[in-house]
Amino acid sequence: MSTTRDALVAKLAELDAMPDDVDVVAYSRKVTNLERATLFVRVDKVSNSKQARGWRDFDVTLILAIPQTDPTGPADDLLDARLEDVLDLLDSADADDIGVRWTEATRAVLDELFPAYEITATATTQRTP
C-alpha cells in the first residue's frame, strides 16, 4: 500500500531539478547518521480540501538536513546552498505535477545534531483508492 507521503517522496526524488547530492526519504525515525544532504518528508496534518469531494490537503514539513555537524562556516554554506536549490525546485514548473506549495523555511536542528531547515508546505491531492 502506498501512502501520500510515499508518493511525495517518489515524485520529489524523480524531478530532474533535484540536486544529485540530495537524497529524498520519508521521515519516520530518529536520525543518527547522514551520508549526504537529505530532504525528509513528514506529514503533519490532513484536512478535507475545499476543492471538491475526494481531495485532501496534506500539511507537510520538508526537513532539509546536512551531514556536517559544525553549525558555522562550511556547514552553513552548504545548508544555505541546498535550501536555495530545493526552494528553486519547488517553485519550478517541474514541480507543478506534485501539487506542493511551500510557505516558509525556518532554521532548525534535526535530532539535536544536524543543521537543517524545516520547509512548511501543503500538498493537495485527490484520493484514488
- In DSSP terms (H or I, runs of 4 or more residues), the helix count works out at 2
Radius of gyration using CA atoms only: 15 Å
- Broad shape: globular
Enumerate the spans where pLDDT stays under 50 for 5 or more consecutive residues. none
Strand portion = 35-45%
Head-to-tail CA distance between termini: 10 Å
* Helical coverage, percent range: 10-25%
Write down the domain tally.
1
Strand order of the largest sheet: 1-2-3-5-4
List keywords for this structure.
129 residues, alpha+beta, Alpha-Beta Plaits, five-stranded mixed beta sheet, 2 helices, 40% strand, globular
What is this structure's SSE topology?
Blueprint: H1 4-14, E1 22-26, E2 37-48, E3 55-65, H2 74-91, E4 100-110, E5 114-126
Parallel strand pairs: 1-2
Antiparallel strand pairs: 2-3, 3-5, 4-5
